[in-house]
Design brief:
By secondary structure, chain A is mainly α. Helix content of chain A is about 70%, strand content about 5%. The longest helix of chain B has 16 residues. The chains are: A mainly alpha, B alpha/beta. The structure holds adenosine-5'-triphosphate (ATP) and magnesium ion.
């Protein structure tokens, strides 16, 4: 137990180091673009949501919701030895399906509407993820290739479907509002995370989605660590030959794992697009959802551990919200995006090159050893 | 100049939960072959890894020619003339022998590889030491024994003169072992100093000058081989007398437990890897498939266990299983100690208890409603660890990757024997085990047989074959060419069949 705790601690310290490296990289860009405000800027980023009191904290939870879910999606697939770069596409399919249900299935009574919309979103993502698994298991096509292709198929298909349906609001070039019943409940969170502007409650957008994300993280944790199913998935991820030898059906593991990963991204899309007050709108634009790719960084920083992913998701949301307050320091919106992107990806990347860093450290030690050797010779 | 080319003085190394090396001193003389002996987990590989710069000692020092040196990584070791052949070779399979040898020390002129000089040097070295290596062959096309010689050439090419061999003979056939011994003697004569890890006492007796013995991380002593006996070495190693004889009652044969009819496995090109093989293994019988490596025995086993597709019939206690999934075959009573422990036998990143439960985590006793009952898994693991004396730093929580090679093997054997199979397929079951562990596993295999189960043994070691088998089937180029009763067969006869001689030739008197 103690050992396990120690191990957890040491891998966490790797994440923390990576974050420090990322922040440093971000700081350099702050310096380049506006040296006078750089320190202040870094401080603003680090303060994150707290820049705007408790409402800002609510915003952090709000932004954390989808990236925790896509982080779980990427992390889950990773445990089975697969790189799910398709979270973006799965998220968009899930989002689209839930918007469709949210707008059209008005026959559903009360809370059933959002529940079904969420569920159908999960299903949509699941189908999109499962396709990747099927291609890999049955035709041995690498998951990265199918994922990327499916990302673009999702993007253009959804644009087409939105434009050519009653979901489309041509004036705003986006989808119409979902029905009021289809919006995720606030679950009292607006009573906690708000600031007073005179007598006006300026509440954060946070909603029950964050509970869904955390709940699913716990469920994923239990699946991976407590069930025979999770045991099989991890065995396949570590050594597929030994898994086959032990009688585990590797193809089934690949397909189910990708289906579940897809469903998690689908839920991410649903929570995004069913957010109060009137549902987020799907814009007809030619970009893939950033939340999908941020999921990769979240999973990496969280070491693919579901509980770790909750924290890394919160952290990335924290600095993202912090970054949004940089505008008050006269940083341009684009620069802010670069800075935050830099921090996120540099952190994730530095985890990947952790081994390289370790090797450099070792070489330095060796150099010292060599000089001391020389001294001995003198 | 100092008498010793390398001295490792008072080396101590800790790993989580275990002191792998505890105040060990090892002194290597110039030009000697120095064997390192110890039980599984005694710390031999750790000590050699320290010398080769893969690990750093916590205490103690290393001297070369009497002067203290620091070895922080394998590059340092190489600069000091220290080379190592690992038990698992580190060769690039789709490169040629020559390319593998010069990898990392390429000579370039104007950015172009200077292959000609390298080739000359490799050919010269190969001739000098009688290695007979073809520099242009691809690694994937040459035998394991040849691959090992490439590893040796790699060290020679780098002008290493301290050569470490970590269990080099574990993966070799008896003929290849003979050859390796000859090569090692030649190397020593040319002034190379050799450190040689092996569990086979006869190899130490045959080739080593001195032998250092470790037990549970501690230094026991160094002896001159010419003044000792295998029995004395074994006693030094385990700390008590070992009884080498195994009692084996006559076989009480029952119904066929495993029946194979016309089994065929496709090979590369036209030739079949396994060609219409038929045989039976009865209850209460140990049948050995003997053959020179690469004659289809691996494919035969993979086909029987369902890892590769095949044609023909396989009956388990009279029930056809050839169409069943691997899981169903296992659950019908087939268990399998695989040839390649790292590829098939273990999930190296799982801990020991998970690996011991690898084939039963889904059974009623270890799960309820899809949830693993970890308390049961732990209890079960503890039972096997105790019974089979599996040694590691943190017991059932040890990540298997960090365990010593022999203890990894013990874990697999324990799992498969305890599976209580109807048919146990054991491929090289004692590979890498120390003498004590090997005897224990042999006893267990005989016990399985005496309980009325069938054992199909695949082993390259003739001693093991003759000790365990009731019947020997010889496989040659995918076909069973002889079916011998162990009691009347001789090693010479077996050798001839393995080399492809036909019955008339073997019994024609002119041997
Ligand atoms: N990297 C490591 N991390 C943790 N423990 C280790 C590591 N390497 C070795 N050990 C432990 O140190 C002990 C000695 O291992 P070592 O591999 O040196 O044994 P060995 O004498 O080579 O045994 P074998 O004959 O089985 O190969 C073992 O108990 C092993 O579990
Ligand atoms: Mg070893």
């Amino acid at each position: 137990m103690v050992e396990r705790f120690k191990k957890g601690l040491s891998s966490m310290s790797a994440s923390v180091l990576a974050i420090v490296a990322g922040l440093f990289a971000g700081f350099i860009i702050l310096l380049i673009s506006n040296p006078a405000n750089a320190l202040k800027g870094l401080q603003t980023i680090l303060i994150g949501g707290w820049n705007n009191g408790i409402k800002g904290v609510g915003q952090v939870l709000y932004f954390a919701t989808p990236i925790i879910l896509t982080g779980l999606s990427v992390g889950f697939a990773f445990k089975t030895g697969m790189f799910n770069i398709g979270a973006a596409g799965q998220l968009m399919v899930g989002g689209f399906v839930s918007v469709y249900v949210g707008v059209t299935w008005t026959f559903l009574p009360g809370a059933w509407h959002w529940i079904v919309a969420l569920f159908m979103g999960a299903l949509g993502g699941m189908v999109w993820g499962m396709l990747v698994g099927l291609f890999k298991a049955l035709l041995n096509v690498h998951e990265v290739i199918t994922s990327i292709m499916l990302n673009y198929i999702a993007l253009y298909a959804i644009n087409y479907l939105v434009k050519n349906s009653h979901l489309f609001d041509a004036l705003k070039n986006q989808t119409v509002n979902v029905a009021a019943n289809a919006v995720l409940p606030k679950a009292g969170l607006d009573q906690i995370f708000y600031v007073l502007k005179g007598r006006y409650h300026d509440a954060s957008s946070v909603n029950s989605g964050i509970f869904i994300a955390i709940g699913l993280a716990v469920i994923v944790y239990i699946i991976l660590n407590k069930t025979t199913f999770g045991f099989e998935l991890k065995a396949c991820g570590f050594n597929k030959h030994a898994s086959r030898y032990a009688g585990i059906n590797e193809n089934r593991a690949i397909i189910t794992s990708m289906a579940i990963a897809g469903a998690l991204s689908g839920v991410a899309g649903a929570t995004m697009y069913l957010a109060p007050p009137s549902g987020m709108h799907i814009h007809v634009a030619e970009i893939l959802a950033a939340e999908g790719f941020n999921g990769i960084a979240v999973a990496l920083l969280g070491m693919s551990n579901p509980i770790g992913i909750i924290f890394s998701g919160l952290f990335i949301a924290h600095i993202t919200v912090g970054g949004s307050y940089l505008q008050s320091l006269k940083y341009m919106k684009e620069i802010i995006e670069i800075i935050i992107g830099m921090i996120i990806y540099f952190s994730a990347f530095s985890l990947l090159v952790r081994d390289v860093l370790a090797r450099i450290a070792k070489r330095r030690k060796k150099a010292e050893g060599a000089t001391s050797k020389n001294e001995e010779e003198c | 100049m100092s008498d010793y080319i390398i001295e490792m003085l008072r080396i101590t190394k800790d790993f989580p939960g275990i002191r792998a090396n505890d105040d060990i001193t090892l002194q290597l003389r110039r030009g000697e072959i120095h064997a390192l002996l110890g039980e599984n987990g005694a710390g031999k590989s750790t000590l050699m890894s320290i010398l080769f710069g893969l690990y750093q000692a916590d205490q103690g020092e290393i001297r070369k020619d009497g002067a203290v040196v620091k070895i922080n990584d394998p590059n340092d070791a190489n600069a000091l003339g220290i080379g190592m052949v690992h038990q698992h070779f580190k060769l690039v399979h789709n490169f040629t022998v020559l390319e593998n040898i010069i990898l990392g020390v390429e000579n370039t002129k104007h950015g172009l590889l200077q292959m000609n000089e390298a080739r000359k040097k490799v050919v010269a070295l190969s001739e000098q030491y009688g290695l007979l290596v073809d520099p242009d062959a691809y690694i994937q096309d040459i035998t394991v024994g040849m691959q090992q010689r490439v590893e040796i050439l790699k060290m020679l090419y780098r002008e290493n003169d301290i050569l470490i061999f970590d269990e080099p003979t574990a993966v070799l056939t008896p003929q290849e072992i003979e050859e390796l011994m000859r090569i090692m003697r030649g190397l020593a004569q040319e002034g190379k100093s050799i450190l040689f890890i092996t569990h086979k006492l006869n190899e130490i007796m045959a080739v080593a000058d001195r032998c250092t013995v470790l037990r549970k991380g501690r230094y026991i002593g160094t002896v001159d081989v010419k003044d000792t006996t295998p029995e004395a070495l074994a006693e030094m190693m385990v700390g008590r007398k070992i009884n080498f004889t195994i009692d084996k009652a006559p076989a009480k044969l029952g119904e066929p437990a495993l029946a194979v009819k016309g089994l065929t496995v496709a090979g590369h090109g036209h030739k079949k890897a396994v060609d219409k093989v038929s045989f039976e293994v009865k209850k209460g019988e140990i049948v050995c498939i003997a053959g020179i490596d690469g004659n289809g025995q691996s494919e035969l086993v993979y086909a029987l266990t369902g890892l590769i597709p095949s044609e023909g019939e396989v009956l388990l206690n009279g029930k056809p299983v050839e169409k069943l999934s691997i899981r169903k075959r296992n659950e019908s009573g087939l268990s399998h100690i695989p040839e390649d422990r790292h590829k098939h036998g273990l999930v190296l990143d799982f801990d020991l208890q998970q690996n011991l439960a690898l084939k039963r985590y889904f059974r009623e006793e270890m799960q309820s409603h899809g949830f693993i009952r970890f308390d049961r898994v732990r209890d079960y693991a503890r039972k096997l660890i105790e019974q089979y004396d599996i040694r590691s730093g943190q017991g059932e929580d040890t990540v298997v990757r960090s365990m010593s090679g022999g203890n990894q093997q013990k874990a697999i054997v324990a799992r498969e024997i305890d599976f209580d199979p109807e048919v146990l397929i054991a491929v090289q079951p004692t590979r890498g085990l120390d003498v004590g562990a090997m005897l224990y596993i042999h006893e267990q295999l005989i016990k399985v047989r005496d309980e009325g189960k069938a054992v199909l043994l695949i082993s390259l070691e003739l001693d093991e074959v003759f000790q365990l088998a009731d019947r020997i089937l010889v496989i040659f180029e995918g076909k069973i060419v002889a079916d011998l009763d162990t009691k009347s067969a001789t090693p010479q006869e077996l050798g001839l069949y393995m080399a492809g001689s036909r019955k008339e030739e073997v019994h024609g008197g002119k041997v």
